[in-house]
Amino acid sequence: MKIYFAGSIRGGRDDKDLYAQIIQKLEAYGTVLTEHIGDSELTTFGEQDSTDIDIYRRDMNWLNESNIVVAEVTTPSLGVGYEIGQMEGKKPILCLFREQAGRRLSPMIGGNANLQVQEYKTIEDIDNILDSFFKKLV
């Protein structure tokens, strides 16, 4: 199974360590095409060795090649929202939102019946969410 993991880059990198942990958990279910999202060296300036056009083409290829999309949507990101919109209705999409004071999930994600949205509080909660999500795919 090929998994496209989406998480904020230019929208904010506060959750980069969390992304790395989620990616590690996803690797138990298949190949994560976007491991670089969890790279601690990646900043809000993004990938410095690639043009925006190159990144767009690569990521769209990966999205189309993937079997599923898992998106961590706590940190708002134009790119993540775009990726979800592009794959809506084409692939199973799991959106993970971490409950925090002062943060609310966009109704464009939370109100969309085509997406599976799961709220969590800790990284440990992700195990059960992923297990349930992947069992439903079989």
Description of the structure:
The chain is α/β, with parallel strands linked by helices. It has a single domain (2-137), classed as Rossmann fold (3-Layer(aba) Sandwich). The chain is 39% helix and 17% strand. It has helices at residues 16-26, 52-65, 78-87, 107-110, 123-137, and strands spanning 2-6, 31-32, 68-72, 93-98, 116-120. A five-stranded parallel beta sheet has the order 2-1-3-4-5, sandwiched between helices. α1 links the parallel β1 (2-6) and β2. 27% of the residues are buried.
- The CATH level-2 architecture is identified as 3-Layer(aba) Sandwich
Tally of alpha and pi helices: 5
Q: Which sequence of strands runs across the widest sheet?
A: 2-1-3-4-5
Tell me, what is the CATH class? Answer: Alpha Beta
Shape call: globular
- Helix percent reads 25-40%
- Gyration radius over CA: 14 Å
Outline the low-pLDDT stretches: none
Listing every helix as H and every strand as E from the N terminus to the C terminus, the arrangement reads: EHEHEHEHEH
Largest sheet: 5 strands, parallel
Structural class by sheet pairing and helices = alpha/beta
Count of individual domains: 1
Average pLDDT for all residues? 94
Portion in strands: 15-25%
| CATH topology assignment | Rossmann fold
Number of strands: 5
